[in-house]
Amino acid sequence: MGILQIVAVIVILILLVKPMGTYLYHVFSNEPNRTDRWFGGMEKGVYKLIGLKKRDGMSWKKYALSFVLTNIVLVTFSYIVLRLQRGLPLNPNGITDMEQTLSFNTVISFMTNTNLQHYSGETGLSYFSQMAVITMMMFTSAASGFSVAVAFVRGITGRKSVGNFFEDFVKAHIRVFIPLALLVSLVLVGLHVPQTLKPSLEVTTLEGQTQQIAIGPVASLESIKHLGTNGGGFFGANSSHPFENPNPLTNVLEILSMWMLPASLPYMYGLFAKNKRQGWVIFTAMMTLFVLLLSLNFYAESKGNPAINALGIESSQGSMEGKEVRFGIPQSSLFTSVTTAATTGSVNNMHDTLTPLGGITPLALMMLNNVFGGKGVGLINMLMYAILGVFLCGLMVGRTPEFLGRKIEAKEMKLIAIAILVHPFIILVPTAAAFLTDLGQGAITNTGFHGLSQVLYEYVSSAANNGSGFEGLADNTTFWNVTTGIVMLLGRYVSMIAMLAVAGSLLKKKPVPETIGTFRTDNGLFTGILIGTVVIIGALTFLPVIVLGPIAEYLTLR
Amino acid sequence: MSTVKRKKLLTGPILLSAVKDSFIKLNPVTLIKNPVMFVVEVGTIIVLLMVLAPGYFNAEQSIGFNITVLFILLFTVLFANFAEALAEGRGKAQADSLKKTKQDITANKLVGGAVKTVSSSELRKGDIVIVSQGELIPGDGEVIEGLASVDESAITGESAPVIKEAGGDFGSVTGGTRVVSDEIKVKITSDPGESFLDRMISLVEGAKRQKTPNEIALNTLLISLTLIFLIVVVTLRPIATYLGVDLDIPVMIALLVCLIPTTIGGLLSAIGIAGMDRVTQFNVLAMSGKAVEAAGDINTMILDKTGTITFGNRMASEFVPVGNESEAELTAWATISSLKDETPEGRSVVELAKKLERSYDGKLAEGGEFVEFKAETRMSGIDLQDGRCVRKGAVDSVKKWVQSKGGVIPANLDSNSDAIARMGGTPLAVAVDNRIYGLIYLKDTVKPGMKERFDELRKMGIKTIMCTGDNPLTAATIAREAGVDDFIAESTPEDKIAVIRREQNEGKLVAMTGDGTNDAPALAQADVGLAMNSGTTAAKEAANMVDLDSDPSKIIEVVAIGKQLLMTRGALTTFSIANDIAKYFAIIPAMFMIAIPEMEALNVMGLGSPSSAIISALIFNAIIIPLLIPLAMKGVSYKAMSSTKLLGRNIFIYGLGGVVVPFAGIKLIDMIVSVWI
């Protein structure tokens, strides 16, 4: 039964890929199509309002600059709001201003689509902050990432230019995120997720005591939280909270919401490349890695905790510690895998209490950061590995490696080198630094191998812009706020800008016509090469720490 | 194709000097150019310090282990140096033999009508010298007067002398070659130190070797992998310390050295040098490594018909009887007329008759008197003993000859001969006294094996275009016969450039061969231009490769060598990186096993002990470099096939092999090492 639940969701996802991917292609191909009729008018209004009359294609530099500057403006605005939220409207619960480093961490966290939360929503944010900062950034960060991914795809598939950032940014909102969020919000409300601006409820419990029950505009945040692969919860308990995720149906809806768009992007890419098989190769590689890691988690969680099993406690249900009874192992396992694959970071069970082997799944998915991945970033990263795979193996057909008809040369390799270097660097160096300093060590609540996993998870989650916490780490301190803030920034912008540069460089090259001697990147063999490249270059880097963390914990627990 | 003299791969002196050089190359200043190996050397020095001052590093207990690690690391660097030195050594040996040619030559310089004897080093561009029989030509130049046969074996290895004459495409001479007959006046075209020979020496010596774009890109990747693993290993120590796992520095260095791509890092430059060397061994001189790699990328190849695809001389291909004559009789008379004819055409007639298994009465020719071909008669033949005269020759001449003897011209003679001419062939009429038997169809013949080679090129995805001055009909016939993809008839040198530009605009890389001065612009425009050594200086300057044997069809092999070079690099990179999986499984459990005994579960290879596991992985890592030197030098085997098949095959051998081989290798070494540890 459990496996059937998982398979059903995966099948629905696969059915959604083609229509969704086609829709996204029509949105961003900038060719006249049916979607213009529905949204064209609204967009024209926006363009007029912001003075975007000519929407010419940009150079990659201009595109990157527009993207970064837009993000800087939003970050500045949000920081001011958080620091002054007490005096701002819509604060019925009288929430105080947010502390400096926590504000720094929070705005970066949301702008980078990470949504690492070192605060608890119920007590740390006013309704205004929830809506004007958190929800706003959930839209804008997702749209930013989406735009960059589309620009990258345009570059490598040899469109006229990488596109116009502002046009993409507006279109991502109007044609993708706002309509979908509206739809999902309404369904969630229908499935009993609260949506209100009233203050927390004060109720008298059966025992006669009074209790504060936090409510608020939950459904609207919940929808974009998943659609934008943001993951920051309205409540501290995130999607395990019964108001955020009341039943298995909402659970499936939330899984599909966060998974659908990243999973459709490869198909969209295939349409841009005028070769759908290119898209399916990327999708298959992602899905294969995903299913492998999901199986590991499902297997480990179903088998239960060996230490508890040894006590003779009935555990036919698997390891239920930290999981919601209404979801059970399969729905928790799938949620955990999807939320870390799609770098959403929302949780419906506590990752800290996953069994050691089961804990590898979220860690590994975030370390790879290319199995579906967050808004666009996953596709960019997987394509980066594809270029790397082409470079490594392409030589073996006796030609200068080429990808989609463009030669991969020193310039691209230098930029890719930056991107593949930065990910392990921003994970391993701060992890080591945390263990070298008392400031870092002070936050660890578990000793031994699990303590290592806690710290590692925090930085992996930040670097991959995932945002889920292993929890258990007392992380609202200056040290953690600042280090994770920097890691999130680097994790987001360095590789994005480097990859935009790759797109710009490839765009300038004259395409090489395809012959029988060309290295094919649209068949099963290349899917294998791609997976191999991801595993050997992306994953083996982290093997030593994985061995010292979860694997050592598993081996000593047996 | 001319015979290529394969020089011996390894000789004693080359080996010896390579061993010496591998120590000289330990100098960190030069080694830093190879960052992967530089990291290994730094690791070696750190371990050396620990061995020299164990007290300072608290390493007294593990001194035996450390010394072992030290030696393996040292040998890893030495092996890599040796690979490079060996490749360079072969180039140097070749340069040395060339230098012998480049001795100081006395030149007879023409100064205002008088001959002055000067040293060749004093000659400047524009000087005119006279070279007589038996003398060496003092420098590169153009023949401006006279005709001589020149022995160019010093450069080409080809012993047959070649004719050099003023004007036309056979006017360029190379310094250091010897005039074996007659006398020529040569205008020197290069200053000392810039001559063809000088450039050639510096090229094969590898003195001016620059990294090719592809090598730079690969190097970037290798450096970033090295940095990644450096981060992995350096950060591992504080993390492990937190868990109470102490990691010794030599063990961490061992892990680092095993993980960074030392195999390809050590062999990369050797592969590049050896690739150039293979081209040189093939008697083709590439002006840069870039040109050789570009050859691997070629999409379109432009080939001259005459001399490249066809022999260039016309051969009998068919006997066409006219009037009421039978083919058998025509064949018999045509053969009899040719039995004593030693021209290629004449011989081809006899060969064709043999091939067709036609009988003729050879005795008839016995005692007959051979009539040679003359420009005035335009006929040749034989006057038989019985008085009959057999003639073959130009149709008009034979017609006149027959008419003069009172013969009648068959009605369909003209139409048949026109038909042959239209197809690009040359008709020869055959007559005995006053009777015309028919025509011999002479045509340009495609060299044997060309069709197969074009098929191979097609499999590699290379399009072939044939250029010829012939009319479209002839061109189409030859093109069909040779199996080229496209042809340009009645082509001019401008046409060639236009085709090259057109193909390049489509993003294709174009290769071509040429020898004449009018080929020079096209040779320069092409991505790979192979000039013939017999060609003009202008052509050679414009091209980026020169074929010393002047065999234009060698361009096909050059492409294969270029591909092989890239494949070798890719295969060894893949192999090197795939090796990491096994090395991880050897070292990771070994590193942690003492502190965390449960790690034994990860010791999938069942290696003897932590130290033997680490040492075995290190030994494997070192020893794989010399084991792969022959492969790096010779290149991976290459057969023309589609890229998908080629990739599948290479992935299987070098990718999958790269995963499996080290598991077996490390286990084997461990079994031996465990005896001592």
From TrEMBL, chain A:
What membrane topology does the annotation report for this chain?
Answer: Multi-pass membrane protein
Q: Which InterPro entries match?
A: KdpA (IPR004623)
Membrane-crossing residue ranges in chain numbering: 6-28, 63-82, 127-153, 174-193, 252-272, 279-300, 376-395, 415-436, 486-507, 528-552
User: How is this protein annotated for GO cellular component?
Assistant: plasma membrane
* Keywords on record: Cell membrane, Ion transport, Membrane, Potassium, Potassium transport, Transmembrane, Transmembrane helix, Transport
Q: Where in the cell is it found?
A: Cell membrane
Keyword Transcription regulation (UniProt): no
Top-rank taxon, per record: Bacteria
Q: Does the record's keyword annotation contain Cell membrane?
A: yes
Pfam families hit by this protein: KdpA
**What one GO molecular function would you report for this record?**
P-type potassium transmembrane transporter activity
- What's the subunit arrangement here? The system is composed of three essential subunits: KdpA, KdpB and KdpC.
Family, similarity comment: Belongs to the KdpA family.
> What is this protein's function?
Part of the high-affinity ATP-driven potassium transport (or Kdp) system, which catalyzes the hydrolysis of ATP coupled with the electrogenic transport of potassium into the cytoplasm. This subunit binds the extracellular potassium ions and delivers the ions to the membrane domain of KdpB through an intramembrane tunnel.
Could you identify this protein by its name?
Potassium-transporting ATPase potassium-binding subunit
Q: Which organism is it from?
A: Paenibacillus etheri
UniProtKB/TrEMBL annotation, chain B:
- GO CC terms in record: plasma membrane
Q: Name one Pfam family in it.
A: E1-E2_ATPase
Broad EC category: translocase
Q: Catalyzes what?
A: K(+)(out) + ATP + H2O = K(+)(in) + ADP + phosphate + H(+)
* Gene3D superfamilies per the UniProt record, alphabetical: Calcium-transporting ATPase, cytoplasmic domain N, Calcium-transporting ATPase, cytoplasmic transduction domain A, HAD superfamily/HAD-like
Main localization is: membrane
PROSITE patterns for this protein = ATPASE_E1_E2 (PS00154)
Q: Which residues form the active site?
A: 304 (4-aspartylphosphate intermediate)
Q: Which UniProt keywords apply?
A: ATP-binding, Cell membrane, Ion transport, Magnesium, Membrane, Metal-binding, Nucleotide-binding, Phosphoprotein, Potassium, Potassium transport, Translocase, Transmembrane, Transmembrane helix, Transport
Localization, per the record, is: Cell membrane; Membrane
Its function? Part of the high-affinity ATP-driven potassium transport (or Kdp) system, which catalyzes the hydrolysis of ATP coupled with the electrogenic transport of potassium into the cytoplasm. This subunit is responsible for energy coupling to the transport system and for the release of the potassium ions to the cytoplasm.
Q: Which protein are we looking at?
A: Potassium-transporting ATPase ATP-binding subunit
From what organism does this protein derive?
Paenibacillus etheri
User: Which gene underlies this protein?
Assistant: kdpB
